[in-house]
Structure to design on (356 residues):
């Protein structure tokens, strides 16, 4: 009777779930792992705790680290004091240059509002860019001046000409760089060169201008204009009113041909100048072995002007023919010779038929 009642009680007791059995086991295992890890760390560090010399070095390390943190905090606190706030800017020109267009008080007020940081925290590269964004400033260098100043060295833009663009005229410097300023501030009496050409040809134009300035020295003329067509053909204008058609310039070989054509022209220029009665308007050098000249006279009519131009070209051809020993053959004279030969053959043929 007692045995049956005991079995009945056991059958009524609830069966524990898997989670209820697993959770206590996981807690026990994790506790054992933690105590084991602590024991391993204690075992590893036991030589330190048991060594007086090692404990002294470890203590010194913590002390010096703490003092270093305090020192860094003090330096940071001192660096934030108002005495180190940038409020003085010294501006000077590069290489003894005179700053004609840079208003120094205005530059100081504009840049001071853009600078952030003090003597210690200011970023010099950012300050340099702020100065170079100002009009008429080509380059800038910045350095600190103790305790609250900056020393700025500026290179002012030196325009040599005016570059024609779709957005209007802009200035160009001797490096071929185009920059935008108020043209009312430009001194036009300095004789700025007039440049024009396709996009991104500005540096090439300035390079050729510098070469032409030396090439035209034999005739004592200065370049006042240089243009490049869409087909990369150069045209230059001189201060004496003459215009030169120089031809195409696609590589260094073409540049050498331009120089050779000018040298050929300079050899016959004294005699050409003596024989031409009127002022020369245009010289076309785009020929393999010669050139064409066009002159004009204000008093002449259109018809007379055309006749005069033809006669000038004829005289030029004769001059070039006289320089055959120097390998100077005119295209016009060659064409005339060929025409005369053809006329002679035709006349001979006609005479032969008449004799029959």
């Amino acid at each position: 009777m007692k045995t049956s009642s005991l079995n009945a009680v056991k059958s009524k007791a609830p069966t524990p779930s898997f989670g209820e059995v697993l959770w206590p086991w996981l807690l026990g295992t994790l506790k054992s792992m933690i105590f084991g890890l602590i024991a391993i760390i204690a075992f590893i560090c036991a030589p330190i705790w048991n060594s007086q010399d090692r404990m002294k070095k470890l203590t010194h390390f913590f002390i010096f680290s703490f003092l270093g943190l305090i020192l860094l905090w003090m330096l940071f606190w001192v660096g934030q004091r108002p005495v180190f706030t940038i409020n003085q800017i010294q501006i000077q020109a590069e290489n003894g240059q005179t700053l004609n267009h840079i208003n120094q008080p205005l530059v100081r007020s504009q840049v001071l509002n853009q600078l952030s940081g003090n003597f210690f925290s200011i970023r010099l590269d950012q300050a340099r860019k702020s100065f170079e964004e100002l009009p008429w400033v080509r380059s800038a260098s910045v350095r600190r001046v103790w305790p609250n100043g900056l020393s700025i060295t500026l290179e002012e833009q030196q325009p040599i000409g005016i570059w024609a663009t779709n957005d209007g005229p802009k200035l160009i410097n001797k490096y071929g760089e185009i920059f935008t300023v108020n043209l009312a501030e430009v001194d036009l009496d300095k004789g700025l060169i007039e440049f024009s050409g396709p996009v991104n040809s500005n540096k090439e134009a300035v390079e050729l201008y510098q070469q032409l300035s030396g090439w035209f020295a034999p005739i004592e003329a200065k370049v006042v204009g240089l243009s490049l067509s869409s087909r990369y053909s150069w045209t230059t204008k001189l201060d004496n009113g003459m215009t030169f058609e120089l031809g195409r310039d696609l590589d260094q070989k073409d540049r050498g041909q331009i120089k050779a054509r000018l040298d050929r022209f300079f050899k016959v220029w004294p005699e050409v100048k003596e024989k031409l009665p009127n002022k020369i308007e245009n010289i076309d050098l785009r020929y393999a072995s010669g050139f064409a000249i066009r002159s004009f006279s204000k008093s002449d009519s259109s018809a007379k002007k055309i006749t005069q131009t033809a006669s000038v070209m004829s005289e030029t051809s004769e001059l070039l023919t006289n320089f055959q020993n120097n390998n100077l053959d005119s295209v016009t004279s060659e064409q005339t010779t060929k025409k005369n030969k053809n006329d002679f053959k035709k006349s001979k043929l006609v005479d032969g038929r008449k004799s029959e």
